[in-house]
Design goal:
alpha+beta; about 575 residues; six-stranded mixed beta sheet; Rossmann fold; Serine Threonine Protein Phosphatase 5, Tetratricopeptide repeat; about 50% helix
Length: about 575
């Protein structure tokens, strides 16, 4: 069905573009992954671009949802401004950026945002504004890369901006010119980068950018451009083409690095990515230090928040450099290895296990606990819930025929359901257990038995989770109405089964009150998960209270790390 065209680049156009681009990357993800040769043939460029843009889409949708819930907040009562929408898009991409390609895409969107918000009061921009935005996007992305290489997404972005500058007309005309310029530049990338030529493919990141620009054309014209540049050999079927492209890519990468077994032995061993809160001066020093440690360095962001990407042999040193510069978090360290790729002398693909558990966890401590119990984990930082694509990737990473998915958060239920549906479409049997807290997930995992029939295992896990009441103790961020009355910013809140039951000023006292209320209905086991900021004595106080007041009730204590809540409580 044709898309209703947008005349100007306004907030609605931003929303439309993001949605269309996410759909386009979803359709091209497998192909882009397969032709991923440079800088490392790790087969994830399409996935990283998709996850990055999915985070941008979620941020834009959240802005629109906020205005739809309270339309009077808008300057004109009709919805978010252009500045609101593009700021959300850029911020969402920044915090969700994955891999080298996703980090560069985030900077491209940020560069556009800087131009589109220059006049914060503007409701929309025209073709001239779009031309300027595309130019600044390409320039800022190139500046973010320590050592730009031609024949990559940077070349494709620059060509798109060059073509747009020569276009006269509305946004649709400019977008089409940018798309055509990018498409031609993409086709030329094998002649600019030897590893692409040996593999017989175009640049994967550039291929993804062409898909994003095709969505921009559709946003303003209502029709997707025809003849989008692909990379699969025309004489093969889709699955065969993907497999052949990936095999050629790995072989070319191995030849380039002098490594015949498909591993990147001559290149850095790790990819390190983290978000960083730091000032400009500290980041300038960080760039110099990371540039000396490794390669593929990309640092994007600004205004105190940055996304850092680098390939290194010493992952610890890269993280330590971030600690010296500011506060790194959402740290991801990936070891490069192509052992799952069946090519040449590489070992054959790992055989799927029968069953696995995938769980979302709110802190590093719980992630370790779940991992020790055999689960594949997805870390959810406070205020940064995972997107459905991230959950799908975790399901794939579990490499099982059957997967039990534990969202461990009531707000993640729909996200997890979407991920489960996508995984089922890929032939994986997925059962979603609607756990609303990590302590319910612990209870479910405790009775998990892979040797049982799948349906029986799911029933037992669901029953254990449902029999576990959950609570948390947290600090109020703002004044609000609750079921227990009005709370002020800084008050201690005790929530039972998601509802505020206690408002107080002392963390330990509030926790004791919550625990007493939960145990009034009985219980056999109390689970306490302590956050980093919980008082030192709170665990001892609560354990003593259980021993003295509730006979035959056991207590187990875990360290949850930086999990948002000061304390999580479960009563089974």
């Amino acid at each position: 069905m044709a898309q209703v065209p947008q005349t100007f680049f306004d907030a609605l156009a931003v929303r439309t573009w993001c949605g269309l681009a996410l759909r386009a990357l979803g359709q091209a993800r497998e192909e882009i992954d397969a032709i991923n040769v440079y800088p490392v043939a790790d087969g994830d460029t399409g996935t990283n671009l998709y996850l990055t843009l999915e985070s941008a889409v979620a941020a834009v949708e959240a802005v629109f949802a906020g205005y739809e819930a309270a339309p009077a907040n808008g300057a004109n009562g009709t919805g978010p401004s252009l500045a609101d929408a593009v700021h959300a898009m850029a911020h969402g991409a920044l915090i969700g950026a994955r891999g080298n390609s996703g980090t560069i895409l985030a900077q491209l969107l940020r560069g556009m945002t800087q131009v589109l918000t220059a006049d914060g009061a503007a409701a929309h921009t025209d073709g001239e504004g779009l031309r300027l935005a595309l130019r600044h996007a390409a320039d800022s992305a190139r500046q973010a890369v320590a050592h730009p290489v031609e024949g990559t997404v940077l070349t494709v972005a620059a060509a798109a901006a060059d073509a747009a500058e020569g276009a006269e007309g509305d946004c649709g005309t400019v977008a089409r010119a940018a798309y055509e310029g990018a498409r031609k530049a993409l086709a030329a990338t094998p002649g600019q980068l030897a590893v692409l030529e040996r593999a017989g493919v175009v640049d994967a990141g550039g291929r993804g950018l062409v898909a994003v620009l095709a969505a921009l054309v559709e946003t303003f014209t209502g029709e997707a451009p025809t003849g989008a540049q692909g990379a699969a050999p025309a004489h093969l079927g889709h699955q065969e083409a993907v497999a052949e492209a990936h095999a050629r890519g790995v072989a070319a990468s191995a030849e380039a690095t002098g490594c015949g077994d498909g591993a990147q032995d001559d290149g850095p061993a790790f990819e390190v990515i983290y978000l960083l809160e730091a000032g400009d001066d500290a980041v300038a020093r960080l760039r110099e230090r990371l540039d000396a440690l490794g390669d593929s360095l990309v640092v994007v962001g600004g205004d105190g928040l940055w996304n850092v990407h680098v390939h290194v042999d010493d992952a610890g040193a890269a993280v330590e450099a971030g600690v010296e510069a500011g506060r790194p978090y959402r740290i991801r360290i990936t070891h490069f290895g192509l052992g799952d790729v069946h090519t040449g002398g590489a070992r054959p693909p790992r055989e799927r296990v029968q069953r696995a558990v995938v769980a979302v966890v709110p802190g590093e401590g719980l992630a370790g606990l779940y991992t020790e119990a055999g689960a594949t984990t997805v870390l959810a930082r406070p205020g940064e819930p995972p997107a459905s694509g991230e959950l799908v990737e975790a399901v794939r990473r579990a490499h099982a025929r059957e997967v039990v998915l534990l969202p461990n958060d009531a707000d993640l239920r729909h996200t997890a359901a979407a991920a489960a549906e996508q995984a089922r479409a890929e032939g994986i049997r997925v059962a979603l257990i609607p756990t609303r807290s990590a302590v319910q997930g612990i209870a479910a995992l405790a009775v998990h038995e892979p040797r049982r029939r799948f349906d029986e295992d799911v029933v037992q896990m669901t029953s254990a989770a449902g029999a576990t009441r959950y609570a948390e103790v947290a600090v109020a961020e703002r004044q609000s109405w609750t079921m227990a009355g009005i709370c002020q910013a800084g008050d201690v809140l005790g929530l039972i089964d998601g509802d505020v039951a206690v408002i107080g000023s002392d963390v330990t006292a509030a926790a004791e009150t919550v625990l007493d209320r939960m145990l009034q209905a009985g219980g056999e086991l109390v689970t306490l998960v302590l956050g980093d900021d919980a008082p030192e004595e709170i665990a001892d106080r609560l354990e003593a209270r259980v021993r003295e007041s509730y006979l035959a009730v056991d207590t187990v204590v875990y360290r949850g790390g930086r999990q948002g809540a000061l304390l999580l409580i479960g009563v089974e």
